[in-house]
């Protein structure tokens, strides 16, 4: 069984940050410590992060970019169309990854079961240490003045201290959001 990556997305004060750790594990062995599972898509207008198979996550990013072009750049519609195809199309049904994507207005979690979930509090997390990162970011959002990037970095740090499948080699991307 391959386990890898914690991905965390936070929105705060007109900014959105998306980050992931770099660990890839196979069983109880660390295979790589510096993988990058976050990407900027659509000429930097969209951030994407994936947990699970790297090949499948990259394929999903490519499919999302194609959907964006097909629907004239409508982010939400492209995500719904991708989730629908991912669930129904025989070619994509076996893609084993979860995807968090964010534009200037919203952050969405996409899954192969057709889920398109928007965070109520502006925070989404997936992957092996996702729940740890989510809990840390929520607590810090409520009880600190940290910006979106700081919340992502701190959440990933906490996850790396608890989850054996998460390390401290984080990549964080940002874009300005609508407040």
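^ structure tokens above, recovered residues below v
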């Amino acid at each position: 069984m391959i386990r890898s990556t914690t991905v965390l997305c936070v929105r705060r004060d007109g900014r959105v940050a998306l980050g992931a750790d770099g660990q890839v594990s196979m069983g109880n062995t660390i295979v790589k410590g510096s993988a990058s599972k976050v990407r900027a898509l659509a000429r930097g207008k969209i951030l994407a992060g994936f947990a699970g198979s790297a090949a499948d996550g990259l394929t999903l990013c490519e499919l999302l970019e194609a959907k964006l072009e097909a629907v004239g750049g409508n982010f939400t519609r492209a995500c719904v169309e991708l989730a629908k195809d991912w669930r129904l199309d025989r070619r994509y049904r076996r893609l084993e990854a979860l995807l968090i994507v964010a534009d200037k207005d919203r952050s969405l979690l996409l899954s192969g079961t057709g889920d398109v979930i928007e965070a109520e509090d502006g925070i989404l997390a997936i992957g092996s240490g996702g729940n740890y990162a989510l809990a840390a970011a929520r607590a810090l959002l409520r009880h600190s003045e940290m910006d979106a990037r700081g919340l992502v970095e701190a959440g990933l740090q906490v996850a790396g201290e608890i989850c054996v499948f998460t390390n401290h080699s984080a990549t964080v991307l940002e874009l300005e959001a609508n407040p």
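The longest helix spans residues 54-70.
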